[in-house]
């Protein structure tokens, strides 16, 4: 049975503008695959945020000492998709927000659950939504997602971009990313690109 995560109680137009969000929910290959399937998403970039420019590379980030999180920068059309809907998918499908500094077998601060708000409205809405979800008790434990203002985002190496689509038979993608996309199809079919439904 799929857990039904409610949408945020209030949408804030200022949180949806300028049509960009940065979310970290474990391996960026998996998070990217989920968001590319959403109607209204125009582009997703896998990358690193939370650390310095000098350590914004896969080898350094995988060490767990760079301060970076693997994250995705999501560009979306505000006329078709809201920041609140992105957050609903983030908490319901993209990852487990109750796991601190890990997602499943991926362990380390680079896999932390985090929302890097691009403005104060996003930061406030994310904090309010986390409080709403914690009040429901749906997750059985507290959400550990960090919410901070975005300072910098560094795109990952080219081979990481659109990775799941280009490597559908890769074992990690089969085991982790594709089940999340399938969960999205079952949980929110109304949010999908026509080609994904």
TrEMBL record:
Keyword DNA repair belongs to the record: no
Start and end residues of each Peptide methionine sulphoxide reductase MsrA domain: 21-173
Record keywords, A-Z: Oxidoreductase
Active site: 27
GO MF assignments: peptide-methionine (S)-S-oxide reductase activity
Reactions mediated catalytically: L-methionyl-[protein] + [thioredoxin]-disulfide + H2O = L-methionyl-(S)-S-oxide-[protein] + [thioredoxin]-dithiol; [thioredoxin]-disulfide + L-methionine + H2O = L-methionine (S)-S-oxide + [thioredoxin]-dithiol
A Pfam match: PMSR
Classification via SUPFAM superfamilies: Peptide methionine sulfoxide reductase
EC number: 1.8.4.11
Described function: Has an important function as a repair enzyme for proteins that have been inactivated by oxidation. Catalyzes the reversible oxidation-reduction of methionine sulfoxide in proteins to methionine.
Similarity field: Belongs to the MsrA Met sulfoxide reductase family.
Name of the protein in question: Peptide methionine sulfoxide reductase MsrA
Organism field: Acidithiobacillus sulfurivorans
